[in-house]
Amino acid sequence: MEVQLHCDLRRQGKGGRMEIIMGHKLTQQDIDKMTEEIEYRKVVVRKELLEHVKEARAHGDLSENFEYHAAKKEKNRNESRIRYLERMIRTSEIVSDQTDEDQVGLNKTVTLYFEEEGEEEEFSFVTTVLTDSTKNHISIESPLGVALMGHRIGERVYVNVNAQYGYYVEIRAIRSFEEDVPLNAY
């Protein structure tokens, strides 16, 4: 199974502006979560933050009004997050797992034996927006994800990190990953 990564591709966006195609591989579930977050931020959070800005503005001199500047900054962060999520949805590729039960694929948890360290470790392969290295949720677009996609239990796989370094792992176990993972905050 071949995985292609998109880097610095551009296309014409809204209003004739050029935009970078992020090219993330997302599931329909990821898109749904992002759409839900966008709606929540537009309907609930935006309204609350505008109210905070109004209240802070009423406190007087804006040049020395810390509350006003903090409220504006938080409002801008919310708008930035909305734009980021909308752009990610617009420029993403929807993927689904087409692998067999005994193959490494999207939303699978894999037990790997690292030959160099002589240790076993478990990783769950997810889309980019669900990665969390503290929980070993690794992107299917990472070097480890790209190397292992489509391989089966018992196979020894070379993971190419860069031109100077790589390592071997052996796939010891594969199971479905069903955990409901929240989106990364970025």
What does this structure look like?
This protein has helices at residues 28-57, 66-91, 143-148, and strands at 9-12, 18-21, 25-26, 93-94, 108-114, 119-126, 137-139, 156-160, 166-176. With 186 residues, it is α/β, with parallel strands linked by helices. The strands form 3 sheets. It has a 5-stranded mixed sheet with strand order 7-6-5-9-8. A hairpin with a 5-residue loop joins strand 1 and strand 2. The chain contains 3 helices and 9 strands; from the N terminus they run βββααββββαββ.
Name the features.
186 residues; alpha/beta; two-stranded antiparallel sheet; single chain; disordered N terminus
* Average pLDDT taken over every residue: 85
Helix content: 25-40%
List low-pLDDT spans: 1-12
Return the string of H and E elements: EEEHHEEEEHEE
What kind of sheet is the major sheet? 5 strands, mixed
Strand content: 15-25%
Number of strands: 9
Q: How far do the termini sit from each other? A: 29 Å
Classify the secondary structure makeup into a structural class.
alpha/beta
Radius of gyration: 21 Å
Continuous helix count = 3
Strand order of the largest sheet: 7-6-5-9-8
So what's the overall shape?
Answer: elongated
Record the SSE blueprint.
Layout: E1 9-12, E2 18-21, E3 25-26, H1 28-57, H2 66-91, E4 93-94, E5 108-114, E6 119-126, E7 137-139, H3 143-148, E8 156-160, E9 166-176
Helix pairs in contact: 1-2
